[in-house]
Write a structure and sequence with these properties.
Distance between the termini of chain A: 56 Å
Structural class of chain A: alpha+beta
Distance between the termini of chain B: 44 Å
Largest interface: A-B, 34 and 23 residues
Helix content of chain A: 25-40%
CATH superfamily of the largest domain in chain A: Sulfite Reductase Hemoprotein, domain 1
Number of domains of chain A: 4
Helix content of chain B: 10-25%
Strand content of chain B: 25-35%
Oligomer: heterodimer
Largest sheet of chain A: 6 strands, mixed
Shape of chain B: globular
Number of domains of chain B: 1
Number of strands of chain A: 21
Number of helices of chain A: 18
CATH architecture of the largest domain in chain A: 2-Layer Sandwich
Chain lengths: 552, 98
């Protein structure tokens, strides 16, 4: 994986020293809260309901064992012994003391990590397919491009005060696991007929109070022009994006109000003035970055493994795990393992220090030292030999990390909600916990099949409810929590925004309502192979409305 | 800052500057993490005095964002009314042991 060069190290260490001084001046009264707040936010420090929260960037969701051990250490030493993995492939610590922040940032710098650009109106941490470099269906590894974008966007002076935050996601597979169509810029790396790398560039996607699916602005962007073209988009947005109303300030609104064609004209004009100059990516530089992401030394193995096959035949629990939490690897004899951070009834995305350390140990021994964070709030061991899967499974199971529910009804995304977040209107995590408990039975889950439930505690949609097969949005209705349900959303290459099914439900009713929707799906499906989202696309919202509100 | 528009019994809450912890103000301007020990007022002049005190002097280096919240007077002491403030006072409702 990528290692910091001298520029990276220098700016991260300088920032730690600068922030140490700023915190000291805030604590002794030299800085007022109004002066200090933008400075702390530039370093990922939020003030939430109960405490300060530190959001640490995990570039494109890639971690080494050493980094994960450091996160575990921080959770134990400075927090309440757990961390929370987020829908942007980051980690948040919920109980950090301001006075200790500079020490924590110094700890992070030791393992080449920081919290820069995890807040504020800048280009945020770049996200990518969590199966990058491993997935069988991958055409191009997106990580080198995500890293190039990270280097370009880090502390970019021109884009430090954009109209609003800006999120870029990259995939290199036709099956989109990075939700690129709900990002400000979504990039799909692919090959043209001559085998050259080209990018499909999507612009203006996003969730929040005005959900929009991105529009494709280019389909054939040459590899060398990636940065120049992104810079052109950012320049047009920086100048023309609205600054009068924060709810209309994202680039999606500019795309919507101006129209894609006019925006594309402006971008091309800007692009013409900067292309072929300093932002052109030389092939040698791309190769240099690619070398950091060279495949690990895979063994030459047969496509099947007797050890694995025997375990599947003889251990039903392992078989259930294998069926649900493994994904096909591009190299024979290897598999991708999803570690579910959604044990039944637990808060989605939380991992204890001990669990993080256990995963770091397993990754060091069995996955070439690599761990990935998914935007679905799970972790991934990207490269595990089939032969090693039974032992890896046993190690995961011994620390509560082998829940066989990846992609199932209990693999729920939930934002922190009103239990932690100062923006929230309703709780998310307890709703996720109750749904998880209701559907705890593993055979029932597996019968229901793929079903993505996503819960947000406010309209900002950190829980991605708009793109959940079933989305749940918490609202405050006269001081009471209410939950609005949307159906049919999807974050993949068939991106769709969910449709509101009808009036909301109280906290007492919401789990029954979800169960009713699932029951309706089971009645409507032609066969167990027809997934919830397939049925929804076939029949629409109406049958679900009828069964949900039949007694209303 | 706008004056209170809440009406009813009110108390001042904030977050501790150093730790971020939720704190509530007593009449003498000191802070407690126990909402039951907060001092509340209903008279608009007294409410105004409380929030002014919270925003003045050395409090700038003790707490962040002091605000008024609606509270009720119960046998055990002051209690928050809105769900958000109940969660702030008591901590997350999330269950960790499953």
């Amino acid at each position: 994986m990528y290692r910091y060069d001298e520029f990276d190290s220098a700016f991260v260490l300088e920032r730690v020293a600068e922030f140490r001084d700023q915190v000291a001046r805030r604590l002794n009264g030299e800085l007022t809260e109004d002066q200090f707040k933008p400075l702390r936010l530039m370093n990922g420090v939020y003030l939430q309901l109960h405490a300060y929260m530190l959001r640490v960037a995990i570039p494109y969701g890639v971690l080494s064992s050493r980094q994960l051990r450091k996160l575990a250490y921080i959770a134990r030493r400075y927090d309440r012994d757990y961390g929370h993995f987020t829908t942007r492939q980051n980690i948040q610590f919920n109980w950090i003391k301001l006075a200790e922040m500079p020490d924590i940032l110094a700890e992070l710098a030791e393992v080449e990590m920081h919290a820069i650009q995890t807040s504020g109106n800048c280009i945020r941490n770049v996200t990518a397919d969590h199966f990058a470099g491993a997935a069988a269906d991958e055409v191009i590894d997106p990580r080198p491009y995500a890293e190039i974008l990270r280097q370009w966007s880090s502390l970019h002076p021109e884009f430090t005060f954009l109209p609003r935050k800006f999120k870029i996601a990259v995939t290199g597979s036709p099956h989109d696991r990075a939700a690129i169509q709900v990002h400000d810029i979504g990039l799909e790396a692919k090959r043209d007929s001559a085998g050259r790398v080209r990018f499909a560039v999507w612009v203006g996607g996003g969730q929040g109070r005005t959900p929009m699916i991105a529009k494709k602005i280019r389909d054939d962007l040459p590899e060398s022009e990636l940065l120049a073209y992104c810079e052109a988009i950012l320049r047009v947005y920086n100048l023309e994006g609205r600054r009068d109303n924060k709810y209309k300030a994202r680039i999606k609104i500019l795309v919507h109000e101006k129209g894609l064609d006019d925006l594309a004209d402006d971008v091309e004009l800007e692009f013409a003035s900067i292309r072929g100059k300093s932002l052109d990516l030389p092939a040698a530089e791309i190769a240099k970055i690619e070398a950091y992401f060279a495949p690990p030394p895979f063994d030459e193995l047969p496509a099947s493994s007797a050890i694995y096959d025997v375990a599947v035949r003889t251990d039903p629990e392992f078989a259930a795990f294998a069926r649900q939490n493994l994904a096909p690897h591009k190299i024979n004899g290897y598999s991708i393992v999803t570690i579910s951070l959604k044990p039944i009834g637990a808060p989605p995305g939380d991992a204890t220090s001990a669990q993080m350390e256990a995963i770091a140990d397993i990754a060091a021994r069995y996955s070439f030292d690599e761990i990935r964070v998914t935007h679905e709030q799970n972790l991934v061991l990207p490269h595990v030999r089939l032969d090693d899967l039974p032992v890896v499974y046993a190690m995961l199971a011994s620390t509560g990390l082998a829940t066989p529910n990846a992609g199932l009804v209990t693999d729920i995304i939930a934002c922190p909600g009103l239990d932690y977040c100062s923006l929230a209107n309703a709780r998310s995590i307890p709703v996720a916990q109750r749904i998880s408990e209701r559907f705890a039975d593993s055979s029932r889950q597996s019968d229901i099949g793929e079903l993505k439930i996503k819960i947000s505690g406010c309209i900002n949609a950190c829980g991605h409810h708009h793109v959940g097969h079933i989305g749940i949005l918490g609202v405050d209705r006269k001081g009471e929590e209410f939950y609005q349900i949307t159906l049919g959303g999807s974050a993949d290459e068939n991106c769709a925004i969910g449709e509101i099914v009808g009036p909301g439900f109280s906290a007492d009713q919401i789990v029954d309502a979800i169960e009713q929707i699932v029951a309706t799906y089971l009645e409507l499906r032609d066969s167990p192979r027809e997934r919830f989202i397939d049925v929804y696309r076939r029949v629409g919202v109406k049958p679900f409305q009828e069964s949900l509100y039949v007694n209303a | 800052m706008a004056k209170s528009r809440l009406g009813g019994l009110q108390a001042v809450t904030a977050n501790d500057l150093r730790s971020g912890a939720v704190v509530f103000m007593r009449r003498d301007g000191s802070w407690t993490d126990d909402v039951r020990l907060a001092d509340a007022a209903q008279d608009p002049v007294e409410v105004e005095r409380l929030i002014e005190l919270a925003r003045s002097g050395r409090n700038a280096t003790l707490v962040v964002d002091p605000v008024l919240i609606e509270v009720a007077a119960e046998a055990t002491g002051v209690a928050p009314i809105r769900l958000r403030e109940k969660i702030r006072a008591a901590g997350p409702t999330v269950t960790f042991d499953s």
